[in-house]
Amino acid sequence: MHELGLVSHVIKTVERICREQSLRQVCSVTLEIGEVSGVIPDYLTDCWYWSCKKTVYLRGAALRFETIPAVTLCENCGCQYPTVTYAKICPSCHSVRTHLLRGNELIIKEIEAE
Amino acid sequence: MDSVQIIEIKENVLADNGLEAQRIRRQLKEEKTFLLNLMSSPGSGKTTTLLRTIEHLKNDLRIGVMEADIDSAVDAEAIAATSVKSVQLHTGGMCHLDAGMTEQGLQALGTEDLDLAILENVGNLVCPAEFDTGAVQNAMILSVPEGHDKPLKYPLIFTVCDVLLINKIDVLPYFDFDMKKVVEYAHMRNPRLKIFPISAKTGEGLGAWCHWLWEQVDTWQTS
């Protein structure tokens, strides 16, 4: 439940970009969230509106999400499979020697600003 | 009216935290201060383990402790009784510490005359693992009553730690805790993880852990 901490880092980064690029007002921020990043978008949104009220550049800015599907690679047979369906055990050869290829991300994709 | 433009950022949310953490480590290297980030769930024995570790090492190392909690000063008061420098950090409801909060703590503590600074993170196996605090190494405690399956349930914290203390081994006969399995599960997550079974209550295993910690501090200061 560290959404509040994450929101404060998003705001800090966006404020820095506003200063660097002489932007006045941010209309929206789009985040890319990995399917297994553990981040809960609803909680993030609650923290977002509460935190943005206290800022200059982000007052009233919308928060949008795009999901990055989680994919796991089997080191034994080389197959790639959806993490959420099969977790750590490879569905094709049943090996446990697997690792997450993507799906753990939390990225600021873009902002809309004037 | 200005037109609205879309600006591509493509930056990891925690990129700024990562940079700040690196800055902290550079500063600590210059000061020859080793920062250990200690994490665990509530009640695993972090403060008792710290008190015992301080007893073992306080004649060899100048130690300072930052106690992070959502509220109260009970842990800082316990540490202050050992006469090492300590500060209490309140996270204001936050479930973890990030690099910025750690830096404030380090400034309050004053690190220039310390060999070893220890950050006792908020008791939680989930959130603290996500944030680089600027520590040189991460340690975690897992206590016997919590069960040997925790590396399976909370994989990230086992992945980011350098050392795992398995505490409360004095109560092993009363729990279905499988020491072989916990080592196997923990090494599945992190093959490099150094593991010390200890009892902060009886003192068993503390010598090996403290010697290892002393070696890490020595390497940081001399390499």
Structural account:
The complex is a heterodimer of chains A (114) and B (223). Chain A has 114 residues and is an alpha+beta fold. Chain A is built from three helices and six strands. In chain A, helix 1 crosses helix 2. Chain B is of the alpha/beta class. In chain B, 38% of the residues lie in helices and 22% in strands. Chain B contains eight helices and eight strands.
Rg from Cα of chain A: 18 Å
Q: Largest contact between protein chains?
A: A-B, 29 and 27 residues
What is the annotated CATH architecture of chain B?
3-Layer(aba) Sandwich
| Distance linking N and C termini of chain B | 58 Å
How would you name the CATH homologous superfamily of chain B? P-loop containing nucleotide triphosphate hydrolases
CATH topology category name of chain B: Rossmann fold
Q: How large a portion of the residues of chain A is in β-strands, by DSSP E?
A: 25-35%
Mean pLDDT of chain B: 93
Which helices and strands occur, and which strands form pairs?
The complex is a heterodimer of chains A (114) and B (223).
Chain A: H1 3-20, E1 26-34, H2 41-52, E2 62-68, E3 71-74, E4 80-82, H3 83-86, E5 98-102, E6 106-113
Chain B: E1 5-12, H1 15-31, E2 34-40, H2 46-57, E3 63-69, H3 74-80, E4 85-90, H4 99-109, E5 116-120, E6 137-143, H5 150-153, H6 155-160, E7 163-167, H7 179-189, E8 194-197, H8 206-222
Parallel strand pairs in B: 2-5, 2-6, 3-4, 3-5, 6-7, 7-8
Which key features would you list for this structure?
heterodimer; A: 114 residues; alpha+beta; three-stranded mixed β-sheet; three-stranded antiparallel β-sheet; 6 strands; B: 223 residues; alpha/beta; seven-stranded parallel β-sheet; 8 helices
Quick recap of the structure?
The complex is a heterodimer of chains A (114) and B (223). By secondary structure, chain A is of the alpha+beta class.
